[in-house]
Amino acid sequence: MFEHRIFNFAPGPATLPEEVLAQAGPDLLSWQGLGAGVLEVSHRGPAFMQCYFDAIQHLRDLMSIPQNYKILFLHGGAIGQNAAIPLNLMRLGKSGPQADFIISGLWTQKSRLEASKFGTARIAASSDQNQFRQIPERDTWDLSPDSAYVHLCDNETVGGVEFPDAPHVGQIPLVADFSSSILSKSIDVSQYGVIFAGAQKNIGAAGLTIVIVREDLLGYAMPTTPSIWDWQIQAQNDSMINTPCTFAIYIAGEVFKWLKKQGGIPHIEKVNRQKAQILYTLLDNSSLYVNHVDPRHRSKMNIPFFLKDESLNERFISQAAAAGLIGLKGHKSVGGMRASIYNAMSLAGIQSLAEFMQEFERLA
Ligand code: PMP
Predict the structure, then answer these.
(1) Which of 4, 128, 197, 319 has the fewest CB atoms in 10 Å of its CB?
(2) Which fold has domain 24-260?
């Protein structure tokens, strides 16, 4: 493989499997023997349509998505869905447009703010008093029977908190942002009404947004919903009411095939646990580094940590870069460091980071 590649711990866009990138190179020049690259062919031509349907099927297989769920490949990122979700679902509120939010960090705060443009966006629970170091305890949730849905973020990419499993919310549909944890572990899709995720972390290229929606939730969009955000219209048109992000869909298909070759979700979940364990063990045994997240809710994808002596931050980042470890700077809203360790981050990358951190601490 390419000898100059380094270990990239960026939160997204993030590192991708080398095999996929190596295949993408030649496919840009000529794809499937067509003499034209994958970026250059019609989205409605037979080659791309096959690529699209194959990608959908691979995702259905990998996540065991039941047949009564539609899979949409859209644009606009998870931020786009923050508007699309209330537009499509809020009308299901019993006494007007309303939804409940479980606030566990930056991304659920943003989701709620956007939804509040379309109706009542209730805070049903929040861990802000706790600096978002945990998921709000389930017995504190104040859910309204009048709400159209309950919105949560499975894995808060900035704060590094993750739901251990799908919470029970009764009959009200659960809507979950899986941007940074989709395909990292087994997910019981049947527990959710809607799962959505940007592709630029565990799936591939920025631009593609995955929406997995239970069929009975289609058809309730507010009349003013732009067609591009109307899930039912998109579902009826194979997500192609306009030109889809063909390259990102192609990459997603290749990543899905790569994941199947690795052994699918059961295998990657095991490796992901092992990777996270190595870093959390290091952090918990260190006198220089600290992670503040409640151990029950620690993310296996994004591991934020702080140097107790913050004056060493710059040196940490620059020496890490010199050692071939990049993307470790924490989100600007919280500072410190963060290691994002999605599926494509190898165990070798984790070991390399762990060795660097131990050596840095020894010399500090
Ligand atoms: N939700 C989560 C959990 C995220 O991590 C991100 C991006 N980091 C977003 C939403 C926003 O995604 P996008 O930039 O694709 O709109």
Answers:
(1) 4
(2) Aspartate Aminotransferase; domain 2 (3.40.640)
